[in-house]
Amino acid sequence: MIEISKKQLILLIGIGAFIFNSINGFTYLTKVMFRDLQVWFDQKPIYNFWITELSMILIFTLIGILVINKLTKKQLRSDKELMKIFILWIIAYFVIQLSQYFYTVYGTSFVMENKHIEYGNYVDFIREDYTLQSFQSIFIFTRYLIFAVIVYLGQKTVTNHV
User: Fold this and answer.
1) Fewest beta carbons less than 10 Å away: which of 16, 28, 97, 131?
2) What CA–CA distance (Å, rounded) separates 47 from 39?
3) Strand, coil or helix: 5
4) Cα–Cα distance list, 68 to 15, 16, 76, 141 (Å)
């Protein structure tokens, strides 16, 4: 059994929290960009919704798997290495949050100004269809479930190689 210190445990919890929130933030940014791109090209709202939501789940899953695989390549990490990883993910989180802010202010605003009818049609379509709103909630829950499965399978793979 691998022994870890309390400091390492706290760092690992912090790393996990920032990884999850960074991946979540990045996939949300991607979702908004996909949505706006489809509005720009006059995609039907129903197709826009499904392409955007399913792409988001795929991107979330792929990034989650890549990150877990990258982090589990090496078994033992020093406190210094864990601190670097922790700081890296804090920075990634804030860069992603700033990107979301600036994209929303400039990107989505640009689409809304130049394609206001199409954008309005999309928003009205989503707002009027309660089933789609329910699916959005289900997709959010699904991301948590997917991340739990990725972590579970990742830890199983690591323990099988020790």
Assistant:
1) 131
2) 10
3) coil
4) 11, 10, 15, 20
In a domain, 5, yes or no: no
Token representation of residue 61: 């899953």
| pTM of the complete model beyond 0.90 | no
| Domain count within the chain | 1
Show the tokens assigned to 94: 């804030």
Is residue 138 in some structural domain? yes
Radius of gyration over every alpha carbon of the chain, rounded to an integer in angstroms: 19
The separation between CA 114 and the C-alpha centre of its own chain, rounded to angstroms, equals: 28
Q: What is the tens place of the pLDDT at every residue in 5-59?
A: 899 999 999 999 999 999 999 999 999 999 999 999 999 999 999 999 999 999 9
144 is in which domain, residue-wise?
Answer: 10-160
